[in-house]
From TrEMBL:
Residues 4-772 form the Glycosyl hydrolase family 13 catalytic domain. This is Malto-oligosyltrehalose synthase. It comes from Rhizobium quercicola. SMART domains: Aamy. GO terms for molecular function: (1,4)-alpha-D-glucan 1-alpha-D-glucosylmutase activity. GO terms for biological process: alpha-glucan catabolic process; trehalose biosynthetic process.
């Protein structure tokens, strides 16, 4: 397998096209990256901002430049000797009429050749959750009519801008009594139509319609628009679909969706013909050498991830770089049988947090947060969020599981008992999912299931307790028929419930230290240590040495430099708590008292101050009014998402405009130029945390580039990334400014000005990638060894070595530096510290990669010998 040196993640759309990307190649070459790591580039819904709502996996998105634009980009990358890794989406496609496969399913139902492409329960009509009210109410309110869709060449149920195609078999009843001859001709044509030849049918329809006079078309359209309500209702009931209120999607959707998104329908790539159809273009690009690697989006959503990955590996060959998007929990392992390089690296972010979070003051931070926000308990918050998902947001999925369980457990149990048992089991699940297929569950998965069952048993009694045992038996053994489908659907449901409960609910309710509220992490974790980081890296070197190591993605909750800054709060919780108390008093006039409590409530207020502290890029001076206004717009979007994701006093499905308006007014008041007292105090307080964050950010960069794995530079983060959650983190970076900085970055400038401008980070990034290029085998396959540090300041140093054969690297970086910055000169803060080296690393000469020159190393290495910067990378000469 060809392993990249370093990748650069680029978000297409939002102004980024294939031709725009070509203009950035010189910048990437200057950075030294080996591969462009592209977000989805295939055809997506009109106006898509991310590309995961694919409408055609075998066509390049016209909005990005289409096939011609892609070919120009591909040729330019080849000329620059840069590889290409594509982000592909095998789990789902857009449930949109722009998707011709889905359109065929809507129109023809089970007769469609694509009906089996999606996870659809064909025991009932296909649900289309698009209406703002019930169908009958919309019909009575004249919002629904039958239309002649001239552009598509069919009859359709019209709802505002949507034209949902009718099954041709229903045309005759709809057109009965139509004036003139056009209606009769259409009915006759439809009578012989078939799903297998629907393109020819629609083409002939278009020809028939456009060949008719405007008078005839107008008369037919008027006839259709004037059909009695009962005939429109009868036509609707004759379809393979049902139009329903969008709010019923959580409880009554007839197809598997991506998470909670009704607009994304689950794809059945486990079926060989579906796999072939969905991967035709991707495989062509791999086989002709255009694409060197693939990132598999949401692999846990698939019915059989291992089977899919083995099929994909067989199709692309042994040399193609494959990584999967998967969140792994603390004690979880990526299955060794998966033929991949590893994950996309969320667990690496979680490990990094151990370097910067001060566990010795965890209780003080807990107490301060509880005193201000009220008594909070993260496990209880997560459990409540899971129960909300089970009872409301995934009600339909649970109904389906109950039905499948009833047909699979071999005994008769009351549906309520099965439901209670399933909910308890899913609530207790400690990971996203297990990976059983038709065989008996593997040992690792069985351990997970049994542990969850043991915890769930404590929540149950009587019949539901017995039902739990039966469910565990059904999920554990070899399966066929209904039992196999039950296991598959169960495994496809636990992941979305965990994700939506934790990442998109609990993370927005629990705000103690927002830096830890990150995908793959534990917001309440308190036992943080450098030793834990070393253990995680040793495990990474052994289990997935070629996985991606990332510090920012399009899905992280905040940019890597915002997170680096907020970690420092853990070092001075008393300072932060006193500041929050002052700010609360200063801004008391902005807090509104509503019937259900203050707006914002204390927990949200605490979160707003932290979010603001992380995202405020320049903290050394108060920005002008225009800058404040631009930031206010970004922050307002974050506030809206934060409140709705929390699902407490507002929600995406039930927006409380009064509450949201009050909190938005509070947030706007914080950023008002007239709020001088607060802004001055806020910036003064945040400045030391910001300075510590810049140091942390450089350490993140050094560690990411030298620890096991393939480092990824997320767009713009080579300089600094203080982004808020998406869509803020998908904005176009200022490439002109970054190119200028990179051009001026001779060596590794570390002074305060270079740190604050981003020149230190971009210079460090380029120099480290160059070191990886010079020693690819060392960083790809070298082992990982923790190094002992002693002496004053040793608790704020992380040190380790990478070694492969006779080649070795020694890495040293600062962490937890807030106090050091406040009390002295960081460049010399570690002069009293020294490393103890094992025999195979000692007694050798090393090249000082960051400062230049050579260093003779004995059994110990005094850091004062490398004065001038606390960042050290030594590689054997």
């Amino acid at each position: 397998m060809t392993v990249p040196i370093a990748t650069y993640r680029l978000q297409f759309r939002n102004g980024m096209t294939f031709d725009k990307a070509i203009t950035l190649i010189d910048h990437w070459k200057a950075l030294g990256i080996s591969h462009l790591y592209a977000s989805p580039i295939f055809a997506a819904t009109d106006g898509s901002t991310h590309g995961y709502d694919v409408t055609d996996p075998n066509a390049f998105d016209a909005a990005l430049g289409g096939r011609e634009g892609f070919d120009r980009l591909s040729a330019a990358l080849k000329a620059a000797d840069l590889g290409l890794i594509l982000d592909i989406v095998p789990n789902h496609m857009a449930a949109s009429l722009e998707n011709r496969w889905w359109r065929s399913v809507v129109e023809w139902g089970e007769q469609s050749p694509y009906a089996h492409y999606y996870d659809i329960d064909w025991s009932r009509p296909l649900t289309i959750a698009e209406l703002g009210k019930s169908f009958d109410e919309a019909l009575d309110d004249a919002e629904i009519e039958i239309r002649l869709d001239e552009a598509a060449g069919n009859l359709a149920l019209g709802y505002y801008e949507s034209n949902i195609p009718l099954h041709p078999s229903s045309y005759g009843a709809v057109l009965d009594g139509a004036p003139g001859t056009l209606g009769a001709k259409i009915a006759a044509l439809a009578a012989s139509a078939s799903a297998q030849e629907d393109e020819a049918f629609h083409h002939t329809m278009q020809t028939l319609i456009t060949g008719s006079s405007q008078t005839d078309r107008g008369a037919l359209s008027a006839f259709l628009a004037g059909l009695p309500v009962e005939r429109v209702k009868a036509a609707h009931e004759a379809q393979a679909f049902r139009l329903v209120h969008w709010k019923t999607a959580a409880s009554d959707l007839s197809y598997r969706r991506f998470f909670e998104v009704a607009g994304l329908a689950g794809l059945r790539v486990e079926a060989p013909d579906v796999f072939d159809a969905a991967h035709r273009l991707v495989l062509e690009l791999v086989k002709d050498g255009t694409v060197d690697g693939l990132r598999i989006d949401h692999v846990d959503g698939l019915a059989d991830p291992e089977g899919y990955l083995k099929t994909l590996r067989a199709a692309v060959g042994p040399d193609v770089y494959l990584v999967v998007e998967k969140i792994i929990e603390e004690d979880e392992r990526v299955p060794a049988s998966w033929p991949i390089a590893g994950t996309t690296g969320y667990e690496f972010i979680a490990a990094l947090a151990h370097l910067f979070t001060d566990s010795s003051q965890a209780k003080a931070l807990d107490d301060a947060y509880a005193a201000f926000a009220g008594d909070t308990d993260y496990p209880s918050i997560l459990t409540a969020a899971k129960q909300l998902m089970l009872d409301r947001n995934f009600e339909g999925e649970i109904k389906r599981l109950v039905a499948l369980a009833g047909a699979s457990v071999g005994e008769t149990y009351d549906a309520k008992a099965l439901e209670q048992a399933l909910k308890a089991l899913i609530t207790a699940f400690p990971v996203y999912r297990t990976y059983g297929t038709r065989d008996a569950l593997g040992a690792d998965d069985r351990k997970i299931l049994d542990g969850a069952a043991e915890e769930a048993a404590g929540m149950l009694s009587g019949e539901s307790r017995k039902a739990l045992d039966a469910i565990v038996v059904a999920l554990s053994g070899a399966t066929e028929g209904d039992a196999f489908e039950f296991r598959s659907r169960f495994q496809q449901v636990t992941g979305p419930i965990m994700a939506k409960a934790m990442e998109d609910t609990a993370f927005y309710r629990y705000h103690r230290l927002l830096a830890l509220n990150e995908v793959g992490g534990n917001p309440a974790e308190e036992a943080m240590s450098i030793a834990h980081f070393h253990a995680a890296m040793q495990r990474r070197a052994a289990e997935q040495p070629h996985a991606i190591t990332t510090t920012s993605t399009h899905d992280t909750k905040r940019g890597e430099d915002a997170r680096a800054r907020l970690y420092a709060i853990s070092e001075a919780p008393d300072v932060w708590a006193k500041a929050v108390a002052r700010w609360h008093a200063m801004n008391a006039g902005l807090i509104q008292t509503l019937a259900d409590g203050p707006a914002p409530d204390p927990a949200v207020e605490w979160a707003l101050y932290q979010a603001l502290a992380g995202a405020w890029e320049g903290t050394s001076a108060t920005p002008d009014a225009a800058t404040l206004e631009a930031f206010k717009e970004r922050f307002s979007a974050y506030v809206e998402k934060m409140l709705r994701e929390a699902k407490e006093r507002s929600d995406w499905s039930e927006v409380d405009e009064t509450y949201e308006g009050a909190v938005q007014a509070f947030a706007a008041g914080l950023l008002s130029p007239d709020n001088k007292a607060f802004l001055g105090d806020f910036l003064k307080t945040v400045q030391p945390f910001a300075e510590a964050g810049l140091v942390n950010g450089l350490t993140q960069t050094l560690v990411k580039m030298t620890a096991p794995g393939v480092p990824d530079v997320y767009q713009g983060s080579e300089r600094a990334d203080f982004s808020l959650v998406d869509p803020d983190n998908r904005r176009m970076p200022d490439y002109e400014a970054m190119t200028t900085l990179l051009g001026k970055a001779e060596g590794f400038p570390f002074d305060a000005a270079a740190r604050s401008s981003g020149q230190a980070k971009i210079g460090l990034t380029a120099r480290l990638i160059a070191a990886r290029r010079a020693h690819p085998a060392l960083f790809q396959d070298g082992d990982y060894r923790a190094l002992d540090v002693s002496g004053q300041g040793s608790g704020s140093v992380v040190a380790y070595a990478r070694r492969l054969g006779e080649t070795a690297a020694i890495v040293v970086a600062p962490c937890k530096v807030l106090t050091l910055l406040e009390t002295g000169d960081l460049e010399h803060a570690f002069d009293a510290a020294q490393l103890s080296l094992p025999e195979d690393l000692a007694g050798r000469s090393y090249r000082n990669v960051l400062q230049g020159g050579s260093v003779a190393v004995g059994q110990t290495l005094a850091l004062r010998e490398l004065s001038g910067t606390p960042y050290i990378l030594l590689i054997t000469e």
